[in-house]
Amino acid sequence: MIKKILIANRGEIALRVMRTCREMDIKSVAVYSEADRNSKHVMFADEAYFIGSSPSNESYLVIDKIIEAAKATKADAIHPGYGFLSEKAAFAERCKKESIIFIGPSAYAIDTMGDKITARKYIIAANVPVVPGTTEKLTDEKEALKIIKEIGLPVIIKASAGGGGKGMRMVKKESDVREAIRAAKSESLSAFGDDSIYIERYIESPHHIEFQILADKFGNTIHLCERECSVQRRHQKVIEETPSVIVTPELREKMGKSAVAVAKSVNYENAGTIEFLVDGKGNYYFLEMNTRLQVEHPITEAVIGIDLVREQINVANGLPLTYTQNQIKQRGHAIECRIYAEDPQNNFMPCPGTIRNITEPQGIGVRTDGYVYSGYEIPIYYDPMISKIIVWAETRSEAINRMKRVFEEYKISGIKTSIGFMKHIMETPDFVNGTYDTRFIEKNHDFLFEKDTLIPAIEDMAIIAAFIEYLSGNLEEAFEEKKSTIELWKSYGRLLNSRKL
Amino acid sequence: MKVDAIINNRKAEVELISKNKNHYNIKIDGKLYDFDIITAGNGLYSILYNNNSWNIEVTKASELNTYTVYKFGQSFKVEIEDALSKYKKNKDIGSHNGLNNIIAPMPGKIVKVFVREGQKVKVGETVLIISAMKMESEFKSLIDGVVKKVHINDNDIVNGNQLLVEIKAIKEEIEETVEKE
Fold first, then answer.
1. Catalytic annotation, pick one of A252, A292, A338, A402
2. Are A466 and B80 within 8 A, CB to CB?
3. In this predicted structure, what is the pLDDT of residue A484?
């Protein structure tokens, strides 16, 4: 049985994994780079091991250093979290060679799912739908027309050698097909010296919906229902919720079965996620498989009532799954918002810096997975995500209202964050009504990026607060009296600060 | 005591009428506010006005007499313009004309500097690239000019608000030469 786990990660996910370790009476080992000496995961862990300078390719991404840390601290297992080495087959392989348990799937499964073309072959063999289209290069116009008839409009015609949108044509009407093929071919020939094309069904305004799966060594594979991840910006998830408004019980069962089939096709073990594109008519297509724990896993934990990291550790220990498929029931509704140190009003420019004050939200139905604290300087080397807020409520509308309440309570000063932007999303009619897809942010751009304004009453309160702060620094000029209340506040403030030291 | 407060393009006249312990009387653009305000230090203020409870956090920004006010997950700049800051501003306007100072908006690492001192640059020409948190941002010259000073090198780690590159407008350069002659 695993007694000590090294967490090959940092930030909130390292803390997340360590919490479960502690509950399971397993010792945790943190690894840290130069910039992370003051990071919370180092303080939370039972042991901490220095692995190198700040850039991740000199620390968190160096397999040798992680293995060295595991050996030096006698850790019997490694949890990779997400990102960094979590989806590197070579890392899983190396752990195996060094007789350290890798808490994740086999190198073979990571490898197979990591290569899109190989994965597609396995998925088709497992009878799971993929986006219809050609898999081989095409040059013949008649052949192309025949294929378009088979897969149905609209389609996208892409240059085989393509890139950067060159040679790409979207066709909606049958009368445009012939010309589009010719244009794509000639454009492709002049741009890449190759006129072969391939054709794919164009999925209009799709939803991005994924299924969580769990699998053990004994071939038991279950799914833990879906996560709706359609609120995206530049293909990055921003908000996730479960259940999805568009997934009916029938569709859930069908997609769940497909997800399990995908996992079984590569003898998958441990936790994984199968991502699908879903169109407005309930057709779904395999997109990719993530062979690790996802950022958004807590919403599944909230509605299913399972600790996914505990299940991961159990599976790594060689135990059978704790649950069978018919024990998995969704209860209530959960939403996760990712909070980044960035400026939404300035093209989401990252805003590292020092956190002055942080007040995390509390109360019923709230979970905060974060890692920053007052006085912490967010390093410039890593991801700008500072926390995830997860709310749970009986219904979707209660969950949205709860999230809005949470954003009133969540206060971070010293840096710019995306909290205000998240609050805007919670107020957007398309989100409130559940009528959104992956084009949500683009479609609601004007509403979402409306310049931050204050109604005059609040503006005046802001002026009052700034003015009083100004007075506290320029007091002697403003008043004759020396021992004023403001002076007392100031000394109280100093007292508080000195206590912190 | 009277000052101006600048917030979101609005300039408001603020006048302190009286104060008694936590109780203040302040006029903003002629409207009288009678309120109770306390702070636990650290810039966290609680304001009671007409029995409404407001919580606002204020931190000092880098510019003179400028404060960042946090409310509803957003932040706003409020500048208190008193006699001293008005004087300083007027003094500075002259020297800033025709200058394009590139200042780091955030802490980060200089990926590459594309200019040398004395080099001519055009509007929109990339001067340098900063990387922070896995994202690279290009910084471009806002004016046609000559690079007056480069304060950083490739791979330097820089702080927010640090002066990186000074660019001087070409037009001014010519004027100066004329003057000298």
1. A292
2. yes
3. 53
Q: Is there a contact between A474 and B82 if contact means CB atoms under 8 Å apart?
A: yes
Predicted ipTM of the assembly: 0.70
Residue A311 · residue A271 · CB < 8 Å: yes
Would the CB atoms of A462 and B131 count as touching at under 8 Å?
A: no
- Chain B residues near residue A487 by CB distance under 8 angstroms: none
Q: How far apart are CA A336 and CA A329, in angstroms?
A: 19
B interface test, pick of A351, A460, A484 with most B CB neighbours within 10 Å? A460
pLDDT at B41 over 80: no
Q: Kindly state the percentage of chain A with pLDDT values over 70.
A: 92
CA triple A395-A399-A403, angle to 5 deg? 175
Q: Which two tokens stand for residue B64?
A: 């003179």
Mean pLDDT of B118-124: 88
Active site annotation includes A292: yes
Say if residues B155 and B136 touch (Cβ distance below 8 Å).
no
Q: Average pLDDT of B97-108?
A: 76
> pLDDT at position A18, please?
98
Residue B167 carries which side chain, given as an amino acid letter? I
Lookup: tokens for A369: 């997975």
Neighbours of A410 (CB within 10 A): 24
The set of residues, in sequence order, having a beta carbon less than 8 Å from that of A121 and lying 6+ positions away, is none
Q: How many residues does chain A have?
A: 501
Neighbour order of strands in the sheet with A155-159: A169-171, A155-159, A197-201
Nearest to A467 among B60, B80, B134 (CB): B80
Q: What is the number of other CB atoms lying within 10 angstroms of the CB of residue A324?
A: 10
A95 contacts A85 by C-beta, under 8 angstroms = no
pLDDT tens sequence across A439-478: 999 999 998 988 666 677 788 888 999 999 998 876 544 4
Name the CA radius of gyration of chain A, rounded. 26
Beta carbons of A413 and B109 less than 8 Å apart: no
Tell me the pLDDT tens digit for each residue of A253-281. Answer: 999 999 999 999 999 999 999 999 999 88
Give the per-residue pLDDT at B181: 41
DSSP conformational letter for A253? H
Q: Is the pLDDT of residue A138 over 70?
A: yes
Establish if B16 touches chain A: CB-CB under 8 angstroms.
yes
Please answer yes or no on whether B41 and A381 come within 8 Å at the CB atom. no
Angle at alpha carbon of residue A252, lines to A250 and A257, rounded to 5°: 100
- Cα angle, residue B165 at apex, residues B162 and B166 outer, rounded to 5°: 115
Q: Taking CB atoms and an 8 Å limit, are A384 and B134 in contact across chains?
A: yes
Strands (E), B8-104: 10-20, 23-28, 31-39, 44-49, 52-60, 66-71, 74-81, 99-103
**Is residue B92 scored above 70 in pLDDT?**
no
| Longest alpha-carbon distance in chain A | 93
Highest mean pLDDT among A150-159, A316-325, A453-462: A316-325
Distance from the first to the final alpha carbon of chain A: 41
Are A468 and B14 spatial neighbours (Cβ–Cβ below 8 Å)? no
Q: Minimal CA–CA distance to A294: which of A330, A251, A240?
A: A240
Q: Which amino acid is at A358?
A: I
What is the structure's pLDDT at B176?
47
- Identify which of A352, A416, A458 has the shortest CB distance to residue B107: A352
**B residues 30..89 contacting A (CB < 8 A):** 31, 33, 35, 37-45, 47, 49, 54, 56-60, 65, 67-76, 78, 80, 82
Of B98, B123, B26, B105, the C-alpha closest to B62 is: B105
Residues 6 or more apart whose Cβ sits within 8 Å of residue A397: A432
Q: Please say if the pLDDT value at position A435 is more than 80.
A: yes
